[in-house]
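Intended use. Records like the one below are meant for learning the mapping from a protein sequence to its folded structure. Do not use them to infer anything beyond what is encoded.
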Amino acid sequence: MIDDKKKERETEEPAEEDRRGIPEEAPAEDMAGLKTMPLIPLRGLTIFPYMVLHFDIGREKSISAMEKAMMMNQLVFLSAQVDPDTDLPTQEDFYRVGTIAKIKQMLRLPGDTIRVLVEGISRGRIEEMIFEVPYFKCRVQEIAEEEFDELPPKVVALMRTCLSSFEEYLEDNPKASTDIFPSVASVDQPGRLADVITSHMDIKTEDKQSVLEAFSVEERLELVSNILVKEIEILSIENEIGTKVRNQINKTQREYYLREQLRAIQAELGQDEDIGDEIQAWKKKLKKLKLPAKINEKVEREIDRMSKIQPSSPEGGVIRTYVETMLDLPWNKLSKDNKDLKKAAQILDEDHYGLEKVKERVLEYLAVMELSKGMKGPILCMVGPPGTGKTSIAKSIARALDRQFVRMSLGGVRDEAEIRGHRRTYIGAIPGRIIASMRESGTMNPVFLFDEVDKIGNDFRGDPASALLEVLDPEQNKDFTDHYLEAPFDLSKVMFITTANTTDTIPRPLLDRMEVIEVGGYTEEEKVKIAQRYLIPKKLKEHGLEPENVSIPESVLRCLINNYTRESGVRNLERETATLCRKAARRIVEEKRDCIRFTTGNLENYLGKKRHRYDMIREENEVGVATGLAWTIVGGDTLSIEAIVVPGAGKLVLTGQLGEIMQESAKAGVSYIRSRSQELGIPEDFYKTRDLHIHIPEGATPKDGPSAGVTMCTSAVSALSGRPVRKDLAMTGEITLRGKVLPVGGIREKVLAAHRAGINRVLLPRENEKDIEEIPANVRKKLEFVLIDHVDQVLKEALAE
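Structure written out for the chain above:
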């Protein structure tokens, strides 16, 4: 069948060539010694001389070239393609050097594929491409093999080196068989040896082609030797990696086998504690957390320790608690902030009346967060009297920011471990309350409230305030290290808020780390608004009442504020409001009434007699009685300072439970009076013939501070000179021996107390002028402020003729 096709193609071929304009078939060898023959490009295959192998062809051009070669002298030129993936190669797509081969046998397979058996004869180089259609046809220059009468020593040495390296290559390569080495070693021709060794190596087509193109035997052997050395090195590395992998697999299988045995032993002992599943769950959770490398390694080490000990052992419980704590912490979880300033402001106003400084600071923080993505959380310290809403505003801030809220009370905390945690060497060790609170919050950026920071104690167990220095320092809290965790935890994203009633008891280094915001007491007007908007609706709801069931007019609220509560905040006002709601609820249930109305007339029937009174303006000017202003922890108050002169030996008597500072202020005032007695119209020898007694009423209440200096001095001058003090005037300020008036604190609260007492004029140190802006506008409008620098100005304003 094949012979018939050959004859058919021999008769048809010339006609086809004539039809395509191709010249008649040239002789096999022309005058220049070039041989004309068909060419077959090979994909991923390089054939060397003297090499016998078979391959499959299926491309139309390759089949045509093969059939043409069979009809001629069965010679064909085989050249490797540069890119094996090229399906339709041109003459630029295969190497110019290849192998002249003789076709030994061809067999047609199903699917238009032919299997060909060839034998390499010699190297060849393409000198001219005759045509490419219907197959590749070229003129080839045959390259004769270099011959030696006697092999040079270098060639012999290279042959031995190649054989030695090839033997090592076969031993290291698991894919090759060492059985082929004897046949390779029997080759005595150096060029052929190089070709045979290369043909048995699993290397790239480019490397095999470089050997094929090496016409010099010595060069070819050196090239093969270099390739062998490189391949041996690669195989050595591969074998090393394979050995490690096998050892790891064997170790894993061994551990699995031992673990199964351990389970069987535990089952026999009646122990159902299978820690394996729990450990696997821990490892999965640890992988998802993506912790820093050092922390991840530490947790992995603890998990491995857990897998090697008895779960019921005491150490097992310690490790389990530690691992669960580490895995439950919010290492990379941040809640999304509410950056809508209008919405945040609305939430803050809904929850609190007043506190404008705090609200403004929170909104500023939100605005900066919107512009600067990496800003650290602020550390705010709200300082003010009890009941002014410091703790509740912190909750509102968390709601406005849409963050989790965490609260930790520091009142009475004495143990440093409360902050930093216990070391795991102790039995029952637990993390500090900060880390525990962060774990409960579930995020890295909650609003964290430290309540009552001014009431921290310390004893032999450490100083919690010093431990807080790291927590509240923006430069350090990024790597806060709890003794229990023994690993740094980032607190820089937390918004810390602290509250205190006074800054006097807060350690200076700790206070320096916080941004202090003064939260002053509420005015009467503010308390009325707070009661109407917040307290009454809240208490009605708590007591199951509707707004139409209880009537509490504004006049009743003012009576409650002035006569039944005495505070800067609204805590007692809330209690009294709750009392009224309880009374109303009882009457509604007992008397079946629809509405209970409270008035100033019937208020005593429900709450009893009035408990408090405020000093009111005197009915007339008096000698030796001056009105001072004082700051207390529950707000401002007025002081009626009395002075009287009696015959004696010049003694100064101070009563009313005065503190050392007030006593020193009184003595400084008397010394100033003695130095100016002539100008003040006071007898120069009064300190020899008269005793001066200064008294401040409500002697059961301790009093101290420099603010009453000008008031005591004015009262003393009035008593000594006989000139009365104006009744509608109050004053505050510290004095010096030379009569200068120095600034004092608590101006807002003091002025509010003066307004409540019916005072019209207030004398303030000139340096306190800036504090007037903090006084509510409605109060400022009703008062006249006189700024003073010297006691002479005070006496001129205060003493009547």
